[in-house]
Prior knowledge:
This protein is α+β, with helices and mostly antiparallel strands. The protein has 8 helices and 19 strands. Helix 3 (93-104) links the parallel strand 2 (71-74) and strand 3 (108-116). The N and C termini lie far apart (81 Å).
Amino acid sequence: MKQKTLIIGMMLLTQGIISSAVAQVRQEIKIPDLKGYTTLKCDFHIHTVFSDGLVWPTVRVDEAYREGLDAIAITDHLEYRPHKGDIVAGHGRSYEIAEKAADKNNILLIRGSEITRPMAPGHFNAIFLNNNDSLDKKEWRDSFKAAKAQRAFIFWNHPGWDAQQPDTTKWWPEHTELYNAGYMNGIEVANGTSYCPEAFRWCLEKKLTMLGNTDIHQPIQAEYEFAKGKHRTMTLVFAKNRTIEGIKEALINRRTAVYVGDNLIGENKYLKELFENSIEILDVEKSKRGVQITFINKSDLTFKLLKTEHNPDVVYFRDYVIEPNCRHSIMVKLQNDVEEGDVNFEVTNLLVEPGQGLKYTYHVSKR
């Protein structure tokens, strides 16, 4: 047992040394702000060795710093702690260890825990806690009650997880009970790289906050190919200010979008503004043939456009990909003496409801 403990300790020390050596290189993520709000990049579901994760808490802070995040919540399991024979501590210890590193790296660190129960109700995260240990109850309803007593923000994790829902993604009576009692404030629409359209639909219908998180257990680079330009799954929070209180207020008021792969998932009003604030028109050149539009994508976001119903005398792309941080030119031909018209398209990777991208129109004119 002593040898096993020594090996684990050496592994964790090595992780900390390696992480500290590279923590100073931060890769900023360019996503525009919205009017009156700052866009914060957040991950509210991560694990450390204090439950079933494989890294020390400070490593999670260093990862968040390097990847351009603004905030993280450490949400170790209450009921599942496979390393507890080697690491004996209270449920809030991972947060306490990470605090100093978070302050040093200007990462907003949120105290949380994962309530880990069979279906139903399944797994839930409670964040903005002040006492993790009070949630460690035998009866799951008592755990939720204790979280709510601390004015926690509570959300349902990975509702489509096949280990708990192997045949269909179902809303159970227990979820209605939690929802009606005010013990469910949001749902993970994306967990890791998995997107759950049913969760997206429930958020829209029931006015619940949409979240996207990594649920990371391994070192983050084991899951995401950052060298190939990939990013971790995250929740975009449109906050009044860059504070923990600002994040909580935004979550309560459902000002979020989910960024998973090339997809953005959220309400139409937020995704439309993100799209418009990412694109800057540099030049509009008019001629007898039509209109050539030159623009730049100022963000790290990709936009996938698909032509929708339009006047056949307004001729433009069938589909088009706007790459990040690139200059683009698009020619719109106006035929048969047509002097103006609408360029109608759908941004297929900006999902405003399951299976439906953001619909957009840009008006052009020869005049």
